[in-house]
């Protein structure tokens, strides 16, 4: 998990550096085709990053819910029934010892169950912290993608018009070549 967070933070930082470089170049060379291409690539990368991190966040949330259900079942096995709200409150306290209250440890299996519950609780706490960090990253990336949406629309508009101009120029060039070859055939050689 921490490797993924580190990598995600590095990617986010690199995307911000790329964005800053593009903004600096915009001030010096506003109409460069290379600059427009890099803007488009940056926007595409940013959107893909948001999609990947959204999927990662969803997976973490699903895993947290499965762990929570498993803890609840293990608590029931040890003789302690809890409601969903009580379990959430226990998890929010951040203290794995709350699971030991009232549990009598008579067998090795009960001790193992308790250790599993405490380990899962620690995992859930880590997941919650990770989800909070991801939420912050999502907010940053969402703002970045939103700010670039208008620019992408303008680039798309200009690319579409450029295609039309290229097609017209190609047709005009073909006509000019045809006229040139006709003109050569019609005029007699001059001596």
């Amino acid at each position: 998990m921490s490797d993924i967070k580190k990598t995600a933070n590095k990617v986010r930082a690199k995307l911000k550096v790329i964005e800053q470089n593009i903004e600096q170049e915009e001030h010096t060379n506003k109409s460069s085709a290379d600059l427009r291409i890099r803007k488009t690539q940056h926007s595409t990368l940013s959107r893909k990053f948001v999609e990947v991190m959204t999927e990662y966040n969803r997976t973490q949330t699903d895993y947290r819910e499965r762990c929570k259900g498993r803890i609840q079942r293990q608590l029931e096995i040890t003789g302690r029934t809890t409601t969903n709200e009580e379990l959430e409150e226990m998890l929010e306290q951040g203290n794995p010892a709350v699971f030991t209250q009232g549990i009598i440890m008579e067998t090795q299996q009960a001790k193992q169950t308790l250790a599993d519950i405490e380990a899962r609780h620690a995992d859930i706490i880590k997941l919650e912290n990770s989800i909070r960090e991801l939420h912050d990253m999502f907010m940053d990336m969402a703002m970045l993608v939103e700010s670039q949406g208008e620019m992408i629309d303008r680039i798309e508009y200009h690319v579409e018009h450029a295609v039309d101009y290229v097609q017209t120029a190609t047709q005009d060039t073909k006509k000019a070549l045809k006229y040139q070859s006709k003109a050569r055939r019609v005029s007699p050689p001059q001596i």
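The chain has four helices and no strands. The chain has one domain: 1-149.
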